[in-house]
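Appendix B, record 7
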Amino acid sequence: MDPAPASRDDNSFFGHPKGLAYLAFTEAWERFSFYGMSGLLLLYMIQHLFTPEVMGGVLGLGQFRAVVEWVTGPLSDQAFAAQIYGLYSGLVYFTPVFGGLLADRLLGQRRTVLLGAAMMSLGHLLMASEAAFLAALVLLVVGSGLLKGNISVQVGQLYGVHEEGRRTRAFVIFSAGINAGGLLGPAVCAVLAQYWGWHVGFAAAGVMMLVAIGIYMAGRRHLPPDVARVRDAATAPLTAHEWKVIAGLLLVSLVAVLPAAVYNQEFIAGILLIEESVDRGLFGWTVPTSAFNSFDGLFCILLVPPLLMLWRWQATRGREPGELGKITIGYLITAVAQLVMLLPASRVDAGQQIHMLWPLLLFALNALGFLYYWPTVLALFSRVAPAAVTSTMMGMLFFSTFLGNVLSGAFAAWWETMSHARFFWLHALLALGPFVLALLTLRPLQRLFAAPGSPRSG
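Structure tokens (predicted):
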């Protein structure tokens, strides 16, 4: 189905529908809250929550640790914190599957997004209490699952089925909004936490979640209509071709698992490296470790204009990579980012401190790879997924990120047991494997996903 034709007639936001602006700014402040809280989470657990005088007051933490260690074996407090971070950052990409089902079958995207936003706001509020720590994480996980996939579906619904390049660029702009929040959230919340305490940092994240709700509500008339028509269509059986498309999309999701694990490691092992071995002095001021999370968002913003210019320049010459080609390039860049870290990691293994430019280079290359593959794969799913299961399939895509983030938490436990150079070498191999698989499957998937009447580009 070709959704929301009226929305596509509005090109008032830099040549894109005004609805894209509201969706991008909603995600910007929702991501401010998410990344602001996440940027504090690992060090908050290690430096505050898991101290002897606080840990005993966290409801359910002892029982939860027993379950985790039943699976993993005994863990140090640092390794247990890494496991929780990995599970949390992974589960927020697991629940979109159920958020997609709820939207496709019952509520539609708009109401599901608002329900998720309300749950996330409550979760941020509960972070003010150490005792409610696990309950707060559960609310944030479920709320994010209801919101995240469905708001991405709405971006795709602003464009027609043949607008492949325009839709991909829209998702890059949308991702720039996300990363504006990813830039500001960790920086602002880290400074607030450093000077006024952890809970002030968490409170700032909660306030910006409320701002996100306000923006979304203000722009509702510019958004694609809710999917009552999809619920009607859901009673019709999927065609044989649609089932093949679903299988192809699931393959793309599966290949995306390891790059997600490698990318997410900068927020776990990367932060531990910065805390332990990076000279953070800057003009007499020590940069807070958690503030480095902001550089992911910064580079994901700064690289958008030159990347869009590159793609437009390539398009004028008929050489712009197609969706699957961009995804493949992104996986290769992700692998290169890990290889670059071999030299500084070797110096750390030798007992030396390293300059902060090294982790900044890691963040920059990871951001470039991310901009090549993630907005593009979002655009691909929104374009080719059968209309009756669009939100569900978008949820399945985020499920691959869930698996990757859970794996990154598990891999982070090796940070204490193997050399840092070997750790980055292993992660380079984990990204090179998907690059090779993407190369091998590129041509057949291009043919499967080609829109009727459109050229099959790579």
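Remarks on this record: The mean pLDDT is 82. The chain has one domain: 12-449.
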